[in-house]
Each structure stands twice: as C-alpha cells, then as structure tokens.
Amino acid sequence: MEYAPSITVREAERKDSEKLAEFVVRLKQVNEELDPMYMVREDLEEAAKEYIEKSFGDPNVVMLVAEAEGEVVGMVRAKIIDRFFYEPRLEGLVTDIYVHPLYRRRGVAKQLLAALEKRLAEKGINLLAAEHPPNNRIAEKFFAKEGFKPLLMRVYRKIE
Amino acid sequence: MASEGIVVRPPASDEELAKAANFLVRFYRVNEEFDPLYTIVDEAEPVAREMIQRYAEDENSILLVAVSGKRIVGLIHGEVRHNPILRASPLGVLMELYVHPSYRRRGVARRLIEEAAKRLREKGAKAIAAEFPHLNEIAVSFYRDLGFRPLTSVYIKELEEKQAGR
C-alpha cells in the first residue's frame, strides 16, 4: 500500500465552500454519465455554489468534510426528512457523498458515513438513507456493504 | 431512436479538434471514478489538446468524431498494436470512446465503433479490442452486446514510495 495520510472528519465550514461546490459538481457530472435524464444545467458550477451556500443556512442539513493533511478530500451532505406517515418519523438522507479519486479505496466514505451517523444520532435520528442513480454500481455495492437496503423506487417518464 | 443523421468521420477543423479534446477530458473524468490510478492531472484540457493532435497525426491511430448537424456528439480513438509472434497481430485497440450524455441510447457508440473497426482493418488490424476500467460494468455489457469477449486482464498495484518516517 502506498503512503496513506490519516483522515479526519469534521463539520463543514464556510471556508470549505469552494471545495464542497467542486465535489458536488464532480458528483453531478458522474450522474450525467449514467443517464440522459441526469443532463446537468449549463451553469452547474454556479448552481453548486448556491446549493452549498443554501445548505449552510439550512438547519435540516448536515455537511461533513474529510480532511487529509489539512486538505479537504471528501464530503457528505445529508438532509433531515420528515417521513410523515411512518415511524420513525425522521430520517437522515445522504443526498451527496463524494471522495476525491486520489483518496479512494482507503475507507474515507465509510468514515464519513460513520461520523454522519454519530452526528444524526445526537439529533435523535436513528434512520440513515442514501440516494443514487440505479445504475451506479459502485454506489450500489458500497451502500450494500455498509448495510443499506433498497426501500424506495422512483420511476420517471417524459411528458411528450 | 436511431443514429440516422449521425455522420462519423475524422475531425475536420481546429474547432472540432478542440471539441474532441473536451470529450477526451470527459472520458477520462469518467474513468477517474473507477480507480485512484485513473486520477487525471489538474490542467487536463491543454494536455488533451496535445493528445488529440497526436492522435490525428499518428499513422497508427484513428481518431473519429460523430457529428449531428454541425454538432460534435461523440469521439473514438484507437490504434493498431503489433505483437509479431501472434497470428492476430496487428490488433486494433479502441482506447477512448465518448458520447455526449444528450446523445446516448441511440446507437452513436455503435456507429463510432463500426467506422473505427473499418478504418483499423484498412490499417491491417485482424481483430478489434477495447480497453476500459475493470469496474465499468456499463462498458462490459455494452461490448458483450456487440459480440466482444474478455481477452486480457490487467492487474495493477502501486509501487511502494520511498520510506519516509515509517
């Protein structure tokens, strides 16, 4: 194994905004490759900045970053959702999780999830969810390995 | 949806070469997701420009774009590879293939491969191969559907860095 600096996970701060937006852009570009219905908007970079900015101001959003040697190398964003009809009522939904390619295969995403889980538990939330395109096999395998199971199927058709 | 109206040919202008370079970067960005060893350099665009130029000029390479109207919608690059001890040499190898997301699912990649295969055969290729990241399952099923079978496996590991404080 090559030299692997230790990874620490902490709450995201405004100084991380640029990196967070960059990772969100990368993530949406991956989705774009998976289905034409994930075609990203022209001003994706601007949109990502706005998304991060709004997330900082949203009490129902948790954002964490993974750091290696002072550099942000991964992020996770979760939104707290009211399940309304179901118990438990609240879930933490992972909307975005991304680790820079250079820092893959060393458990960074796993570490991000563990820290997120802890953070959500402190808020009294005991259900963790994640969403990803159905043909993202890497995500599928990752979440299965982490003990997630499919619970929701969302289907789409275009209106002609 | 069919690929009618799609023309496959070599890039014909600087503008088209620039677009091809953009697609090359997109292609490598996808691969980047599959393994740290596919991580691309920071300033990938100018590097891609040089690569495209080289592909366009190299006698052993073929570089084609798929064009819809005036728009470049896809790219393929392949080369002939020699191994004189093999009867199947030279081999035509497809190394980069990219179709813009808004032109997927209508057979553009298939058209690119057919034209690339034809041109590689003209350069002497006896068989055609495709290289892609091991974990790219979309590519696996795509090539299988086109009648390709697995031939070579590439296994890789990092070389140890110089011992620094370990």
What does this structure look like?
The complex is a heterodimer of chains A (160) and B (166). Chain A contains 4 helices and 5 strands, in the order E-H-H-E-E-E-H-E-H. By secondary structure, chain A is of the alpha+beta class. Chain A has a single domain (7-145), classed as Gcn5-related N-acetyltransferase (GNAT) (Aminopeptidase, 3-Layer(aba) Sandwich). Chain A has a 5-stranded mixed beta sheet with strand order 1-2-3-4-5. The longest helix of chain A has 18 residues, at 17-34. Chain A starts with 6 loop residues before the first strand and ends in a 15-residue tail after the last helix. With 166 residues, chain B is of the alpha+beta class. In chain B, strands 1-2-3-4-5 form a 5-stranded mixed beta sheet, with helices on both faces. In chain B, strand 2 (61-68) and strand 3 form a beta hairpin. In chain B, helix 1 packs across helix 2 (44-57). Chain B is globular, with a radius of gyration of 17 Å. The A-B interface holds A 1-3, 26, 29-30, 32-36, 38-39, 101-105, 135, 137-138 and B 29-30, 32-36, 38-39, 101-102, 104-105, 135, 137-138, 158-161, 164, 166.
Based on the model shown, name its key terms.
heterodimer, A: 160 residues, alpha+beta, Aminopeptidase, 24% strand, globular, B: 166 residues, five-stranded mixed β-sheet
